[in-house]
Design goal:
Blueprint: E1 2-4, E2 12-14, H1 24-39, E3 51-55, E4 61-64, H2 67-77, E5 83-87
Antiparallel strand pairs: 1-2, 3-4, 3-5
């Protein structure tokens, strides 16, 4: 699949799309378990609100304020990573808001 590069919209890049090997429930369970057991103890107040990209198969992770950077760094280390993304100190990585306008 080809898409515009987020860094340079005039350039396109090839994107390898990984197929999930687990159900949504299993992804969430594994990701949260790894975070609770091994990562949470290493995060600091400075990490509040940052994204944590976790490979749910081997437990490697990256933390960054930008979700794209966190996932790309993890994929650079583990190209076939099954990534669970969360945000330090938040219940979810993203919040979708619906606004009513009249």
């Amino acid at each position: 699949m080809r898409r515009a590069s987020p860094r340079n919209p005039e350039r396109s890049e090839t994107v390898t799309q990984l197929e999930p090997r687990y159900s949504r429930e299993e992804f969430a369970r594994r990701g949260q378990d790894i975070y609770d057991r091994t990562i949470r103890q290493h995060v600091t107040a400075d990490d509040e609100g940052k994204f944590v990209a976790i490979d749910i198969e081997i437990g490697t992770y990256e933390i960054h304020s930008d979700d794209y950077t966190a996932t790309e760094r993890l994929l650079a280390r583990q190209s076939d990573a099954q990534i669970w993304l969360l945000r330090v100190g938040q219940r979810t990585a993203y919040c979708v808001r619906h606004s009513h306008t009249i």
